[in-house]
Amino acid sequence: MVALSFLYRLPPLLNAGDTNSDAAIVGLQAMHILRGEFSWHLFGSTYQTSVDSAVAALWFLVLGATPFALMLSALVGHVALTLLSYAVLARHVAKTVAAVLVLALVFCSAPVHGNVLYPPRQAALTLVFLAMYFVESIDKSRGELRAGAGGLVALLACFADPYALLFLPLVGLHLLLAARDPSKARWLKRIGAGVAGMAIGVVPLMLLLASPESRHGETKMSLDVVTHNWAVLREACLPWVLGTKVYAPLHEMDYVPWAAPPAIAAIQWLGLASLVGMLLGSAFVVVAPGTPWGVRRIGAVGLLSVPLTVSAFLVSPMVMDQFSARYLVAMLLFLPWAFAPLAHRATGWRFAMYAAPYLASAAIGGWVAYAPAVSGLAVRTGLSNDDEAMGAKLRALGVHVAMADYWVAYRETFLFRESPIVVPSHLAQDRYRPYRDIFAREREYAYLIDRWRSEEPEATVAERLSLSGARYDRIEVGDLVAFVVHAPPDKTPGLASR
To answer: Closest Cα to residue 240, out of 411, 368, 431, 407?
Structure first.
């Protein structure tokens, strides 16, 4: 399953340079960590921490500060999550059945890709499953210590990213059920150890939240957004997560609904029927007499993840559009647990047949969303060579700083290895203010346009430069265009002054 996980993600791995802005910021901070500059918060964030950057920094030490190393830091975290889930499941079902169950973590719909392949957030998710693993082994030697470790790690996951707060009820339920023992005193002792671990683990989180730069709007809930969120859930996010609708990019960031051929559409709807049927079947087995306690409890935790995730989605102020489907990832990660009761009751081959339509639908939807790195079954490579060539040209011209649309600025800064440094065209979008200070000191700069990522058309930038009276040269490399401006930045109204 480890080999399958890497093989399935081969297209983006072969095009690791085609990274996104959020991942690039993690990579940039990792580079700064290796230079001795550390901040608890992720660059420009008021709620996410630098944990993913610290993980990436370790990979950079071995492989260098490359997009491939950055992507690998997240992917290996997801593979570790998969193995932790497998280890829990293998205690209650046959190992071959457990391997089939975790295929739901190998073949994933596109919303999962944002965590698996591009940090941030993957470190927090892996920590959640590490906490679950510790709690699951509570009946072994030193059970209280394992319970305490589980509680501690669960809260450290919340420190890494507040999204992990969603999992705390699942960790708590798992602790309560896994601690069960004929001896009431031992049961309470295990629960107490888990709570004590949480009490220790919450300290870093509270210190982080109490810091002056922290903001808590992302973790709040509001009933005022339910109507809006329900519409987004019903029309876009839930169909995408369930596989009946797939969004795929035409080029880079222009995601549109994918028109599935009739045969694929049939698989998608069979996949949905398979998913719903397995969830209902597992729910029946959970409450049926004779179901082993271990199977019953991990099934209950997995099934609870579905209403918990959907409820949190409906009251979250972070829900905007179809890309908010990433906030439904929690229930996808716990699908193997939710399916476990049915897998225990069915034979291995029979369960594999039940799961096949859903796994096929998820695999197809996730693969299609790799575009433009894939076209059908064909895998394309070399999609990101333009960035390296543009960086080399600008350096040869002695250009040390540049400006671009937000979605381009930090991505190119990382791909250029901070030479040149690229700042956003709007001051309010700065994620790392020292970059702006460096930009202000330079007399020449470039204005970068990425035809598929920039929101500002090339013609608009050219017109504004001409009206400002600035002298500039135009450089084109593939889909990248650079206007090299020969004037002090503060003398280019509407561009550098933003």
So the answer is: 368
Question: How many Cβ atoms from other residues are within 10 Å of residue 141's Cβ?
Answer: 7
pLDDT in tens, 11-60: 888 888 888 888 999 999 999 999 999 888 889 887 888 999 999 999 99
C-beta of residue 489 within 8 angstroms of C-beta of residue 452: no
Instruction: In whole angstroms, give the CA distance from residue 195 to residue 249.
Output: 45
pLDDT of residue 496: 46
Distance separating alpha carbons of residues 128 and 36, to the nearest angstrom: 28
Q: How many other C-beta atoms are found inside a 10 Å radius of the C-beta of residue 217?
A: 10
State whether residue 290 is helix, strand or coil: coil
In this prediction the pTM is 0.92
Question: CA 196 to CA 202: how far, in whole Å?
Answer: 10
Q: Please report the DSSP string for 358-424 in residue order.
A: HHHHHHHHHHHTTTTSEETTEE---TTHHHHHHHHHHHHTT--EEEE-HHHHHHHHHHTTTSSEEEE
Residue 480 backbone phi and psi in degrees, to 5: -105, 140
Strand partners, 473: 484
- Please name the residues in contact with 310: beta carbons below 8 A apart, sequence gap of 6 or more: 233, 238, 328, 331
Beta bridge partners of 379: 374
d(CA 454, CA 449): 6
Identify the residue whose tokens are 């093989």. Answer: 7
d(CA 52, CA 117): 12
Count CB atoms within 10 A of the CB of residue 185: 8
Q: Are strands 444-450 and 401-404 parallel, antiparallel or unpaired?
A: parallel
Confidence band of 217 (pLDDT split at 50, 70, 90)? low
What per-residue confidence (pLDDT) applies to 218? 58
Q: How many residues does the chain have?
A: 498
Per-residue confidence band for 214, with pLDDT thresholds at 50, 70 and 90: low
Structure tokens at 307: 């209403």
DSSP collapsed to 3 states, 9-22: CHHHHHCCCCCCHH
Tokens of 369: 């969303």
Task: Name which of 476, 478, 481, 401 is nearest 449 in CA terms.
Answer: 481
Alpha helices, DSSP H, located in 215-259: 226-232, 238-242
**Cα(364)–Cα(382) distance, integer angstroms:** 23
